[in-house]
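Hello K.,

You asked for the raw outputs rather than the summary table, so here they are, unedited. I folded two proteins back to back in the same session to keep the settings identical. This is the first:
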Amino acid sequence: MRLDLAGLKRLCILLCYLLLNSFFSKAQTLTLYSFPSPHPYKWNSPHSLLVSTLHNYYSKSDCQPRRILGHMVIEIRNDTNIFLTGMASDDMAGMKNSLLKEKIGLGVLFKLVKGHLEETRQVQTEVKMRTELFKAAFVSFKISDSAYNYLLAFVDSFKLKGYDSLYNGLNLPRKGKGSGCTAFGMSFLELINALLPEYRDKWAVQINVPEKLIGNELLKKKVRIGKLFFSFRWAKKDEPGRKLLLYEPCLIYNWVNEIWETRQQDNKYGLVQIGKAKGLVVDCRQNSLALPMFTR
C-alpha cells in the first residue's frame, strides 16, 4: 500500500498521539491534596493565633469530617493502582483540653499525641467531595517507577516502626519524632528530592515561640489561656524561645491559586484542574533517590 505525503503526515501524527497517550497514562504520580482550614490561621502573634484557633474550633462546616486545622492527603498512583493516606490525630478535642485543663499554652504546638494513618477507603470519598464541591488545591509530581515503589515501601516501613501512631510532636516523621499531616507529606517530597526551597518559603510558617508561653504538664509549668490572649509578639532572636517550622495547608492552597490567577507557567509547573480544585503538575521523573527513608 502506497501513502501520499498527506497520508504519511496523518499516520505520523496518529503514532505520536498514541505514544504520548501511552506514556502519560502509565506515568506514576505523587499528589499532595491541601484542604485549607475553615478560616485562615493568623500567625502574626500568639494573640492572633489563639483568636483564629477559637474561630476555627467553633465554626460550622458542611463538609465532614471537620478539618479545623486544615488537612493534607497524600496520593500515590500508577495506571492501575491508587493509594491514599493522611496523618491524623486520634482526638482533636485534646487540643482544647491541653489549653483549658492542662494549661500548657503554646506547648500544644509541640505536644506529642496519639495518631494514625488514614486508609484509602477513609479519605477517597472526602477527596472527591472536597475537590468537586469545597475548597481544595493540589500539587501533582510525576515520578519514576523506582520512586513509586520507594514511596510505597516508605509507608509500609513507617507503619512497621510504629511511627504512624505519633502525631504532632516535633514534626520530624523520618526521625520518629511525631508528624502532622503536612510534615508527613513533606517527607515524601524529601525522599524524591522534590522539596524545593520555594516550598519552604511559601508553604511554611516559621516563628520563634516564647519559652514563657510553653507549658509542661509533667513539670507542672502552667500557662493560662489569658496569658496567650495578651501576648502580642513572638520571641526575638536574643530571647528564650523554641523555633517552629510548620507547613500550613492554607498557605499551600493560596500559593497554588495565586499561580493560577497570575498564570505563571514556566518549565516547573503545568496547570490542571479537578472539579473546583486547581492544581499544579511538576515533573520529577529524573530526580535521584539518594535519601534514606529514616534518619536519626
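The second followed immediately with the same parameters:
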Amino acid sequence: MDFDLSKPQKLLQESAKTFFSRECSPERVRELMATETAHDEALWRAMADQGWTGLIVPEAYGGLGLGLVELAVVVEEMGRANLPGAFISTLWAAALMERAGSEAQKAEYLDAISAGELKATVALLEASADWHPAAVQLRAEVEGQGYRLNGRKEFVTDAAIADVILVAARTSGGLIILVVKKDSAGVTITETPAMDATRKLYTVEFQEAHIEAALTNKVKDALEYSMGVAAIALSAEMLGGMQWTLDTTVEYAKTRLQFGRPIGTYQAVQHHCADMLLMTESSRSAVYYAAYALSEKDSMARHAVSIAKAYCSDAAREVGNLGIQCHGGIGFTWEHNLHLYYKRAKSSEIMLGDATYHREELARLVIDRAAD
C-alpha cells in the first residue's frame, strides 16, 4: 500500500509552492494585514486563474472537481505562505452551497465562486460561541416569499469582503441557511478586534432585514459536512504553518552562534526541534487521512476529521511555542515573521472548534457508534 502523494498531486503541490512563494511573500503579507480587509483582489484573481477557487467544486458548476486530498495539498502551501484573505471562508460556503442548495442556486453561486467572481463566508457563531449546529438560536420569521431577520452573528470571517454571507438560522420548521447579500438593507458589518491581523473577524447584525433566498436541502447534514471540509482545510493550513516554523527554526539553529557555537549543537535546542518535527509529521498523517476518509465517504470520516482538527490545534500552538523559544528574543519581535505564524496558529486553534470541542465530538461519535 502506497501512502505517498501521487505524481499529479506532487506536481500540484510544487506548483502551489512556487506560486505562493512568488505571489505571497512575507512582505506582501505584512502589507495586506495592515489594510482594513487583508484582501488582495489581484492575488485572488491569480488564484482563480489557477483554478483553486473552484478546486473541489464539481465540473458541472465550473470547478476542477478534485478531491479533498488535492485541496489539502494546495492549502498546506497556503499555510506555509501565511496567505491572508477569504479562501477558507469561501471554500466553506461553497461546500455548504453544494450540499444544501437547489440546482438553480448551485448554478448561480458555484459557477461564480469557481470563476473567482464571488467571495462568500458562513455566519454560524452566536453569543454562546458554540460551533455545534444545534446551538444556533437566531430566529428567521417567514415573511411573504422570504424571511425577516433580527439578531447578530459573531466572529464571522472575511464578512466585509464577502459578496454573499450564508447565515445559519432557525424557523418553526427547523434549521435553514439564509443567503444574505452583504449590501442588503438592515445588515450591518462591524470589524471585531482579533489577534491574527491576516484573518479579519466581524460581527454581522440584522435589523428588520428581509432575506429572499434560503438553502433548505438537508441543512443539518450539509452544515456538518461543510464544516468537515473547512476543518480539513484549516488543519492543512496549520500544517503548512508548522512546516514553515520548523524549517525556519532549524535553519536559525544552524547559523545562530552562542558561546562560539551554533545553538543547534546544544541538546536542549535539538530536543525542541525534534519535538517540532514529530508534531508536524503526525499532523500531516492526520490531515491527509481525514481528507482521504471524507472524500471516500468512509464510515469513520467524521472521527478522522475531529482527530485531525484536535491534534493540529494543539500541535500548531506548541510548534509555535517551541519555535519562539529556539529563536529567543528575536522570535517575538515585530521585525521577525515568526510571530505572524504563531498568531495564525492561535486563531486557527479555536476556529471551527478547538481540541477540547473535537475531543468531545469524538466521545459523542464513539458513544453513538457503540449504541448502534
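The first strand starts at residue 120 and ends at 123.

Happy to rerun anything if the numbers look odd on your end.

Regards,
P.
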